[in-house]
């Protein structure tokens, strides 16, 4: 199982897929069936990437189960990479508009994407945002949003109000 001579691990592999090369293939959509996954493995895929920015848990579980079957049938090992980028929420703002925010100021985040962005109202692209936040949650408003420099990153804290969540600049 182990090499007799340590120098032997530095020799080029006679196989078609040296272990130093990693080929990442995104699985799902058109690459979910055992047959397709098996052909991807046979073509040289060494890492299966699961993109969790779409699809539900059951879909990805089925793809993973099929990948396990494809690995078993092909006898080709494959690593799994989970891309868990997470939810991206976009502030719907005119790129040419300038917005100034002061420390201690209250800002309302609205799910009305047609609202005009101002220093007190920011429309966001996530209709479920009110259900995702609770009082005390930090909210990061991405860098470059306000002045175009990294130093403009803004963190907000959620405070409860009778009708909606209001974020206060920290």
- Helix/strand order: EHEHEEEHEEE
Report the average pLDDT across residues.
75
Number of domains: 2
Count of helical segments? 3
Helix/strand-derived category reads alpha/beta
Helix content: 10-25%
Strand content: 15-25%
What's the end-to-end separation, in Å?
A: 58 Å
Number of strands: 8
Main sheet specs: 5 strands, mixed
GO molecular function: ATP binding; kinase activity; magnesium ion binding; potassium ion binding; pyruvate kinase activity
Protein name: pyruvate kinase
Family: Belongs to the pyruvate kinase family.
Enzyme class: transferase
Describe the structure.
- Keywords: ATP-binding, Glycolysis, Kinase, Magnesium, Metal-binding, Nucleotide-binding, Pyruvate, Transferase.
- Residues 22-142 form the Pyruvate kinase barrel domain.
- Pathway: Carbohydrate degradation; glycolysis; pyruvate from D-glyceraldehyde 3-phosphate: step 5/5.
- The protein folds into 2 domains: 6-83, Rossmann fold (3-Layer(aba) Sandwich); 106-169, no CATH class.
- Helix content is 18%, strand content 22%.
- It has helices spanning 34-42, 57-74, 129-132; strands at 24-27, 47-51, 79-83, 106-110, 121-123, 138-141, 154-160, 165-169.
- A 5-stranded mixed sheet has the order 5-4-8-7-6, with no helix packed on it. A 3-stranded parallel sheet has the order 1-2-3.
- Helix 1 (34-42) links the parallel strand 1 and strand 2 (47-51).
- It is elongated and about 70 Å long.
């Amino acid at each position: 199982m182990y090499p007799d001579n340590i120098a032997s691990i530095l020799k080029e592999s006679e196989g078609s897929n040296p272990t130093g090369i990693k080929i990442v293939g995104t699985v799902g959509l058109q690459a979910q069936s055992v047959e397709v996954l098996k052909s991807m493995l046979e073509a040289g895929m060494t890492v299966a990437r699961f993109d969790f920015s779409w699809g539900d848990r059951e879909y990805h579980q089925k793809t993973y189960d099929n990948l396990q079957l494809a690995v078993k049938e092909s006898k080709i090992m494959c690593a799994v990479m989970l891309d868990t980028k997470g939810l991206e929420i976009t502030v719907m703002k005119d790129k040419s508009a300038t917005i100034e925010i002061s420390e201690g100021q209250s800002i309302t985040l609205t799910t009305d994407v047609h609202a005009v962005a101002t220093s007190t109202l920011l429309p966001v692209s996530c209709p479920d945002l009110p259900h995702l936040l609770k009082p005390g949650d930090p909210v990061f408003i991405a860098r470059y949003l306000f002045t175009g420099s990294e130093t403009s990153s803004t963190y907000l804290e959620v405070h409860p109000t009778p009708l909606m969540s209001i974020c206060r600049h920290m």
